[in-house]
């Protein structure tokens, strides 16, 4: 018998595709979208420009941007069927699950659901990204017994989402902060949800199914669910003074600090500083710095503690996303879904890329069960 192949259960270091979308240098804490440093994009561009960059390969000029903005605005409305599906869902579930249901309804309404023509894929990507904020805001309002707020064509993607969520036009700072958040989480190479979307798409299924799989994957606490868990942790800590005992207790009981650590980054996540800045300014404008200050104290403590420094555990993107999204009024359980509002762009850009040279992704497992087993009919079994 040949030697059993080595198992790599977390697939660390395994390269499964080529991509020109994003590049991560985990050692030095660098992230680039199509060669552009995230620091150059984060606070000087709109989320719509980043959509154009990721989907169409270049930062748009004015007329290209206007065209995309116009397409997005024309697809923000969700159909009566999708609205009905969202309205029929239990109000007690995870908001990100409502998006999975809504995406499925979108797919079932689409007569060309299975088309893999690049033009059709592009159009569906735009439609999905345009509809995601509307779907999420609709679910969050309906579950509280409020009316849905229709999209406002005068607002950009970030401002419009906050408007549909609260029914009030956001301040310029709030819209800019959420815009920056959307830019920062749009794409991140072969992360787990992108990979699961790619695995699903590789079976030659439809774009909606791949996005639906990615949504389920993003929900997990080790991935997009960590922003909600990080916020719960900050609330649990409660005050700056409680940070130290909380960390000591966490180490004693082996409880992970949420928003800390990363599979690829061995340095501070380059997105954290932008989120930290907006977390502070939005909290300041709101008149409640508590959660931002607790987060800062927690980061300071992990920067000083050998357990974290030896293992190179630093804040990841979720760490300051949590207090920022909280200050923006996004319910804690909806934070993973807010992540999806942006990451759907990265997912679909990856799926467009994958269309070229599509190949079934199908790894193997090492069998560890019995070599053979003697079959007995049901009445002869013990
Ligand atoms: C992101 C994450 C899953 C990456 O995990 P990973 O690459 O598989 O790393 P490991 O689980 O092998 O952890 C390596 C070591 O660091 C420790 N560690 C990792 N993240 C930690 C955290 N957030 N808090 C405390 N310890 C942590 C592990 O206990 C382990 O210690 P050990 O060597 O003594 O056993 C992990 O850091 C984590 O769970 N973070 C919290 C959740 C989170 O913020 N997720 C969002 C990611 S963007």
Structure summary:
The protein is an all-alpha fold. Helices cover 55% and strands 3% of the residues.
Q: Which terms would index this structure?
A:
single chain, mainly alpha, Citrate Synthase, domain 1, three-stranded antiparallel β-sheet, 17 helices, 55% helix, binds coenzyme A
Number of helices: 17
Q: How many DSSP E strands? A: 3
Give the distance, in angstroms, between the N- and C-terminal Cα atoms: 33 Å
Taking all residues together, what is the mean pLDDT?
A: 97
Order of helices and strands: EEEHHHHHHHHHHHHHHHHH
The H-level CATH homologous superfamily, spelled out, is Citrate Synthase, domain 1
CATH topology-level name: Citrate Synthase, domain 1
Structural class: mainly alpha
> What bound compounds does this protein have?
coenzyme A
- When the domains are counted, the total is 1
Question: Describe it for me?
Answer:
By secondary structure, the chain is mainly alpha-helical. The chain has one domain (19-362): Citrate Synthase, domain 1. Helices cover 55% and strands 3% of the residues. It is built from 17 helices and three strands. It has helices at 38-41, 47-56, 62-74, 80-88, 95-109, 118-142, 157-166, 172-184, 192-201, 207-218, 226-237, 243-253, 272-286, 290-304, 306-310, 317-327, 335-354, and strands at 22-25, 30-33, 36-37. The chain has a three-stranded antiparallel β-sheet with strand order 1-2-3. Helix 2 (47-56) runs parallel beside helix 17 (335-354), helix 4 crosses helix 6 and helix 6 runs antiparallel to helix 17 (335-354). The longest helix has 25 residues, at 118-142. The chain is globular. The chain starts with 21 loop residues before the first strand and ends in a 28-residue tail after the last helix. Residues 10, 222, 226, 256-263, 311, 313, 316-318 line the site of coenzyme A (COA).
